[in-house]
Specification:
- With about 575 residues, the protein is α/β, with parallel strands linked by helices.
- The protein has three domains: about 50 residues, Immunoglobulin-like, CATH 2.60.40.10; about 325 residues, TIM Barrel (Alpha-Beta Barrel); about 60 residues, Golgi alpha-mannosidase II (Immunoglobulin-like, Sandwich), CATH 2.60.40.1180.
- The protein is about 25% helix and about 20% strand.
- The strands form eight sheets. Strands 8-9-12-15-16-17-20-21 form an eight-stranded parallel barrel, surrounded by four helices. It has a five-stranded antiparallel beta sheet with strand order 22-23-24-29-26, with helices on one face. A four-stranded antiparallel beta sheet has the order 3-2-6-7, with no helix packed on it.
- Strand 13 and strand 14 form a beta hairpin.
- About 50% of the residues are buried.
- The model has no long low-confidence stretch (mean pLDDT about 95).
Length: about 575
């Protein structure tokens, strides 16, 4: 078989295949090639006798520092021939981490819980990164070999079994991919060529627009298309795209969207790109015909921040601006809170307005919680640790009745009591200590004592973060799960609730922000966030769903504290 590697600056390249070493021949464009027989291989560059794994490795059974292994995608027996995919509009996403979703922490163990997601009403399962990273446990954002699936989770065959099982249940699969940086251990790309250019907040960034960048861009795009084609994935969530430094006339994201749409046409099923971005720039999800990048959706942190402040009262850090009484109303009607307006956290103006007459709401993902907003808190505490069930219910009702694509984080649906904390397992003791002390130093600046911040290298931190599935049937958790089921069912059954036309949305609020009414066609969602009973104008005659005790009297709803009512108006 043929082994190839891109190493444009090398004067010599060899490939070690099983026990033999073979000289490689220089080809066009900095590529080297050799024919040999075997299954375990690594590369030797110039006169360096330290073998390196393949940057385009498909399989790393022994970790990111060891030899790669040949993997043939055609050998897997897929059973999803009838799968035609799922479009994002009308969808409900469920974000999960394979390592802590179940006690087993593997793809096969996660398959056993897919029926729970079907029963809940989820349409898309989003996996946190599953490509290879150093160690056994981690969030996955320190990956270094983007095409190889993390072996402790089950390797490439394990991921394929998971996707196959999900498709058999009508669930699309989204994968979180990280192209903005590489992890601190096992990132050997710079040994092969000009892959890196500068640093960002998390590590070395990619060379996307400098000399030699054509192959680097190809590296990213081929990796993305490979997830769609070879693993039958339905969507990719692109991590922190604002950190992709690219000054070319055609941005990498636009190029990726163009090629993804082309592959979608070939495969005959929807393929979706979802960006995480801190830019508040609708250009990402604006069509290419209108001058945008043509991505299909992006996360909406502003909606999360407004909901978080409304439910918790927290106003520190980037939450400060969202303490404005009209913050929640604004993000519901306008998508972004910062639309070329002042951001006190950034100490500058930020963002650009969304043309809601043109861009549909389904292109923006809304959420009460996600891995970042929980795990990047000092103790990884969920909303359910501090927010009363009634207020949580109001937040969930707003999320599922909004025109945006809703996403929830694993365990949120039953108000899981388990935290989700930051953890890693770097074998290098110096790196492990640097991560440990860095985490504690970061939160000490915000008043946390050293002993209060969990040790990310302690296996107990991982164990605390695993979901406790026995909670599902317990009092308090059972009721919240039923509420989530009902809200998702109503969103599916009532077209008004999934209607993505943001421009048609009407929102009414109390002057002090204690209550809010969301107009969704002929439906009214009224939420009382206050600590006292509220009489809220509705114009409704029939209650469809309520949390706690609520009554409708003519055109007015009477809501106890921290409750909501969904009502249908008179024709």
């Amino acid at each position: 078989m043929r082994f190839s590697v891109w190493a444009p600056e090398a004067q010599r390249a060899r490939v070690r295949v099983d026990a033999g070493v073979h000289e490689m021949t220089a080809g066009d464009g900095g590529w080297w090639h050799a024919d040999a027989e075997g299954v375990t291989y690594s590369f030797l560059l110039d006169d360096d006798d330290v073998p390196l794994p393949d940057p385009r490795s498909r399989w790393q059974p022994h970790g990111v520092h060891e030899a790669s292994r040949v993997y043939d995608h055609s050998e897997f027996a897929w059973a999803d021939d009838a799968w035609t995919g799922r479009q994002l509009p009308g969808g409900v996403l469920y974000e999960l981490h394979i390592g802590t979703f179940t006690a087993g922490g593997t793809f096969d163990a996660a398959i056993e819980r897919l029926d729970h997601l079907v029963d809940l009403g989820v349409t898309h399962v989003e996996l946190l990164p599953v490509n290879s990273f150093d160690g056994t446990a981690g969030w996955g954002y320190d990956g270094v070999l983007w095409g190889a699936v993390h072996e402790p989770y089950g390797g490439p065959d394990g991921l394929k079994r998971f996707v196959d099982a999900a498709h058999a249940r009508g669930l699309a699969v989204v994968l979180d991919v990280v192209y903005n940086h590489l992890g601190p251990s096992g990132a050997y790309l710079d040994r092969f060529g000009p892959y890196f250019a500068g640093q960002n907040d998390w590590g070395p960034g990619l060379n996307l627009d400098g000399p030699g960048s054509d192959e680097v861009r190809r590296y990213v795009i081929d990796n993305a298309l490979g997830w769609f084609r070879d693993f039958h994935l339905d969507a990719l969530r692109l991590d922190a795209v604002h950190a992709l430094a690219d000054r070319r006339a055609t941005h990498l994201l636009e190029e990726l969207a163009t090629e993804t749409d082309a592959l979608s046409a070939v495969l005959g099923r929807p393929l979706t790109l979802i960006a995480e971005s801190d830019l508040n720039d609708p250009k990402l999800v604006t069509s290419r015909e209108r001058g945008g990048y043509g991505l299909h959706a992006q996360w909406s942190d502003d909606l999360h921040h407004a909901l978080h402040v409304k439910l918790t009262g927290e106003t520190s850090g980037y939450y400060a601006d969202f303490a404005a009484p009209d913050a929640l109303e604004r993000v519901l009607r306008e998508v972004f809170f910062h639309t070329g307006t002042w951001s006190s956290f950034r100490e500058r103006t930020h963002g650009r307005p969304v043309d809601t007459a043109v861009l549909p709401g389904h292109r923006f993902l809304g959420y009460l919680q996600n891995h970042d907003q929980i795990g990047n808190r000092a103790t990884g505490d969920r909303l359910s640790a501090t927010v009363a069930p009634g207020r949580l219910a109001c937040g969930a009702a707003l999320l599922f009745c909004s025109p945006y694509t809703p996403m929830l984080f694993m365990g949120e649906e039953w108000a899981a009591s388990t935290p989700w904390q930051f953890f890693a397992s770097f074998p290098d003791p110096e790196l492990a200590e640097a991560v440990r002390t860095g985490r504690r130093r970061e939160f000490s600046r915000h008043g946390w004592g050293e002993a209060e911040v969990p040790d990310p290298m302690d296996p107990a931190t991982v164990e605390r973060s695993r979901l406790d599935w026995t909670e599902v049937d317990r009092e308090g958790h059972r009721e919240m799960l039923e509420l989530y089921r009902n809200l998702i069912r109503l969103r599916r059954e009532r077209p008004e609730l999934a209607d993505p036309r943001v421009a048609d949305l009407r929102v009414e609020t109390a002057p002090d922000g204690s209550w809010l009414v969301l107009h969704r066609g002929g439906l009214r969602l009224a939420c009382n966030f206050g600590r006292a009973e509220a009489r809220i104008p509705l114009g409704a005659t029939a209650t469809l769903l309520a949390w706690g005790t609520a009554t409708v009297d003519g055109r007015e709803a009477r809501l106890p504290p921290e409750t909501f009512v969904l009502a249908e108006t008179t024709p």
